[in-house]
Amino acid sequence: MAALFLAVLLAGGHAFRYEQLEEENFLPRLRAFDETGFRQLMNGQNLPLTMSSFAETSASFPELPYFWRKRLKIVDRLGSGSFGEVFKCKVACSGDDAHNFVTLKLIKEKSAFTDREIGFLKKMNEVSDYCVSAIGSPATFHTNEGTWLLMPYLNGGDFLQLAHTCGNKGKCRDPSQPKNNWDALGRGISNAEVLALFHQVVQGVDALHSRGIIHTDIKLENAMLSCREGECFASVIDLGLGCEPKVTRTCGMTGTPTYLAPEVWKTDQPRSAMTSPMRDVWSLGVMLYLLVYPTEPPFMWDTTGQKQIKYKPSEDKTIGKDDLDMLIAQMLDPNPRMRAPIATILSVLEQIIKKEYAAPPEVTRMIDEKPIDRNATMPVPKCLLDKLDYDVGDQPFEREMCVDNVTEANGVMRCGFCVGCNPCCKCRVLRHGQKVKEHFRQRVCD
Asked: Where is pLDDT greater, at 267 or 129?
């Protein structure tokens, strides 16, 4: 299946770099806005709603921080922009494995958003493969050039490219039919498999919520695929507009207009509308709408929010009456209190995939097993996991603080409840002369 996705998606095996293959009149790449941008849109300013790929450059590769020079080797520049650069790196310290790569991101532009993103990536360190995170220890490194972040390498393109494989094939996306027919693409891709990949995206959002983070910019462009030895999985990316409801005034009107929930558009609503995880559920509903139906939602190009505010799924003629239709309608309920919770979405999708679509074993395993158990990904190489040898006092825990071996923790609640998260591990940390136990998540507990 990996070869199929890489061929069908035409992603070139590059995480974070997008090929210009899209039809101009079908699902262009949409731009996200902060609160200033949304105020300008709502005041009638004509701002571009679409965006292009990262700019290509022939500049030489920068020198890696000394800490990683013997461990990593830059083999490709995946993208560059005003924020910084993204590189594909071979893990040089892991032996002869030709497929062991990581992503290294250099953030040059300092802002409140970039600082917050770095914090979120570290906070999500190996919590779930279905959500991007910083990996390794240390996972970040500061130099005069900026902040370097070590992240997983995802090689299969994003969900927008996946949607375009259907849009470019008439038998899959036919506006005269009630739903897209992914089965028509053949060669292994199917309706059940697309829903299974979306199920993983929902698990990624759930993992974020379990850590007290709202993404605020869930969309096709911010979910990526990665494949290894015939097995694939999906992962939520780009935490740059994320927020923490418990941190005062970090959640605002941010995201992509098409995917923004109606309660966020309403300027007269209490601040709690901004801080509810249900705004991510609405965005997931729009994403599923675009994967399932051959037509766009009626509010697709609204820049003032009026169509979102007035939208009623019961009046949308595109939405039918079967279980998948009803789920999409529940996810797009204009009342966030009536919107389908994450647990319901996961349960209903699983029922549809396994029962209604009678998915084959290789698809049901995408729901029942984690990527590492299906060999779709690998543990972080141990040579990227260092240990500190000094007392860390009251510093917040990070993976490199472990002074002994990492083992699996007893008790499912040690790391908190999370459906799509990696196992709970433990190690001891030297604090004020005492070895203190810490719990954290990791793909594999050594």
From this structure: 129
